[in-house]
Design brief:
Radius of gyration: 22 Å
Number of strands: 0
Mean pLDDT: 84
Number of domains: 2
Distance between the termini: 81 Å
Number of helices: 15
Amino acid sequence: MLFIENSSYILWYNQLTMDIKTLLTRTNNVKRSSYLWNAINACVSAMVSPLILIVITRSNPTDLEDAGIFSIAFAVANLLLFLGQYGFRRFQSSDVNERYSFEEYYGIRFITCAAMMIAALGYCVFGTYARGYSAKKFAVIMLICALKLVQAFSDVIHGRMQQLGRLDVATKSSCSRYICEILSFCIVYIATHNLLAASCACVIVSVIVFFITSYNVGRDYCNYKPSYDRAAMKRLFIEGFPLFLSLFLNMYISNAPKYAIDAYLTEDVQAIYNLVFMPAYVISLIAHFIFNPILTSYAEVWARKEFGKFRRLVLRQCGVVTGLTLLAILVAATFGIPVLSWIYKVDLAEHKMSLCVVVIGGGMLAFATFFNTVITIVRLHRTLLYSYGATALAALVLSKYFVVNYGIMGAVVMYTVLMTGLAFILAVITFSKISRESRRFAAKAD
């Protein structure tokens, strides 16, 4: 009887995974589906933190402690996510000649993901002894880092799918996981008002959905046998280091005000800053995902040495980012504060100027993310170390002064100044490289 029951369960599970695989891979137009689902995935991903904060603040409008803890946990997890990914998604997706095998990318991902969780534990131990983190805050930060660990590991599978022209499958898979994460967290938090329980449920659901979507469908695209060839590992670590460090520092620069607030101010101030900062975060995250589909196509144009076309593509994308930023500023100046106050059930009337300033900063971060992508494609990513290193150093030096003396307004001004300077530096590097290669190619042709 037990054997029959187990056999029935196995048959049911196999049928379920087959149905999910069919659903995720079915399309009439791969290119159109890739762009559509990438846009949907970008929006859903961008809404994870805002929707969870909405549920937390509306459930406890007079106590913003949980909102503050979740905000710093999400900021830390997003920072360490780049350690788990090690900047390989863009490198892997644009590796059109397959210089490295998937098995090598897959093998190195186990190492970087382990490093990510060790770093998370180290951060929490430091927070406990140096900043007086409670056991609850320690546990929530570790759980949200575990949630991002799932994203970091699935990213290597999605990178392979994109490399083979099936970004649509990757984005459908990740979109499904994001939706389930939001629903599980919100349902448990509303039912229990317990941040720890909601975070734990969210992680469990995320792991389950990962296995029945990304890992399941990935069998058709990936060979799940990691390679740990020492020579290849060494080359990958060396080549990926500038990308990892630039993205890591990019996230640090973006979140520097949050870390300063966490160190010197209260959970309530942290919560308010994150509510005001949320539109800028959404802009930058959507922009990050919008740039994903261009990786392979831009890399192909660059490989064909069509430098004029490449410059036009870059300028066109700059126009898109400019338009989105101007629209965001207009919305922030008119409807931003009333809408945010209503959504989060928190009075934000005195923070209108802060909102407008931080939205400008979000637009500048979108520019910086785009130029980072282009610099990766043209394989000039070592210059990113100097650009992000200098900006991160400025953030480290200035954050305490601005936050302690000027509070939330100081935090948003510092953020916007840093993002503007970084975007300008990366733009100069990008267009200088395009012009230099264009002249060199023209000289050879003559």
